[in-house]
Amino acid sequence: MPPSRFEDGSATVGIIGLGYVGLPLLGAFCEAGLQVLGFDNDPQKIRQFEHGENYLNHLGHDFVRRLRDTGRCQVTDDFDRLGEADALLICLPTPLDRHLQPDLSYVEQTSDAIARTLRAGQLIVLESTTYPGTTRELLLPRFERDGLVCGRDFWLAFSPEREDPGSADHSTRTIPKLVGGIDPESGRHAVALYRHAIEHVVPVRTAEVAEAAKLLENIYRAVNIAMVNEMKILLTALGIDVWEVIEAAATKPFGFKAFYPGPGLGGHCIPIDPYYLAWKAREAGLPARFIELAGEVNRSMPDYVVQRTLRALNDCGKAVRGARIMVIGLAYKRDVDDIRESPSFDVIEKLQALGADVCYHDPHVEATHSMRHHDLKMTSTDLSADALEKIDCVLIATDHSACDWQMIADHAPLIVDTRHVMANVNGPKDHVVDA
């Protein structure tokens, strides 16, 4: 049997969604020598790509220009062209609604668009994180309703994204890729395709295994982060330094992995993904106690940070109403511009609701924009000795490497530190409060 176009690299790969997952994936296939067609309904992203302008800074300033200049990449907002691609990889957000239930509207709408242009010989792979059974229960019926049969006329699989924005140790190409097909033939074709762009592809038996594995990865992190966040609250009340405790426990060479506390969870995965399994468990009439308790603890952390800030101000004889507070870090993690689900937004809004005059500084986020649940309408403020001396409190939410922590320690009158960065500065620290 001659090799399929997925095996020999002659397939045109369509990437649907050119954000934090889709854009680096497009880059991996393009750099592997395949023809790539990117789809996004944001015309600004299309324009920026066509002009060689990178809109995800952690990928490097010349990332988009380099891809565009290969001549192997096209991008479009015309979803009538979905039929031109041999493989379609769906990289769309799967947020939660206000009741913490899955919102799969982006995936559903795109699946309907694919169904309208679906032709024999196409491979469709869902990469968006979701509950086990989504690919088979939600996508498959849409694609088979006009008479095409999965495994014979087209192929369908699930392969969870595993992006780590800003990481110097991992990239789209080097992170192992799980792939599970709706049927064995679908899995075989999807594995063959990904092997062109990914160094290590890991086949699993079904799409459901791949879907559940992705959730397990992030539930593992969410539960352990919740545990250490709760430990921080308890140990702080007992007058014990949680960071020193973690460092001590981490000397054990087996049976312990260090997790670290913070102001809450951010990013598109860990604050959201566990609720997909909790929702599916409720649908089956089963409890998901660890998952839901971890969610409660992690969602409570912005309130804890605000309360620690109020107490710190009070100890200095200042009321929160009218207090000038600078939040350092809007991105959810160090050295990236990714603000999705960042706890800084909740902290800022809670402080504002109490009457504080809040500004923020983030070297990677020049200004805020309207989001699903927030619209701060703020721009990053200057971080200088003069600026610090005019505020009442600095609240450290993100430990960006570009921030001059020594200057902050030297000039801020009061510092609330959620990231333990003040431990490494010189001089007195009686104006530093851990949170």
List the helices and strands and how they pair.
Blueprint: H1 5-8, E1 12-16, H2 22-31, E2 35-39, H3 43-50, H4 63-69, E3 73-76, E4 87-90, H5 105-117, E5 123-126, H6 134-144, E6 155-158, E7 177-181, H7 184-194, E8 201-204, H8 207-237, H9 242-249, H10 273-283, H11 289-315, E9 324-328, H12 343-353, E10 357-361, H13 385-389, E11 393-396, H14 405-411, E12 415-417, E13 432-434
Parallel strand pairs: 1-2, 1-4, 2-3, 4-5, 5-6, 7-8, 9-10, 9-11, 11-12, 12-13
Antiparallel strand pairs: 6-7
Helix pairs in contact: 5-6, 8-10, 8-11, 10-11, 11-12
Description of the molecule:
The protein has helices spanning 5-8, 22-31, 43-50, 63-69, 105-117, 134-144, 184-194, 207-237, 242-249, 273-283, 289-315, 343-353, 385-389, 405-411; strands at residues 12-16, 35-39, 73-76, 87-90, 123-126, 155-158, 177-181, 201-204, 324-328, 357-361, 393-396, 415-417, 432-434. With 435 residues, the protein is of the alpha/beta class. The chain has 2 domains: 5-205, NAD(P)-binding Rossmann-like Domain (Rossmann fold, 3-Layer(aba) Sandwich); 222-434, NAD(P)-binding Rossmann-like Domain (Rossmann fold, 3-Layer(aba) Sandwich), CATH 3.40.50.720. The strands form 2 sheets. It has an 8-stranded mixed β-sheet with strand order 3-2-1-4-5-6-7-8, with helices on both faces. Strands 10-9-11-12-13 form a 5-stranded parallel β-sheet, with helices on one face. Helix 5 links the parallel strand 4 (87-90) and strand 5 (123-126). The radius of gyration is 24 Å and the shape is globular. The relative contact order is 0.08.
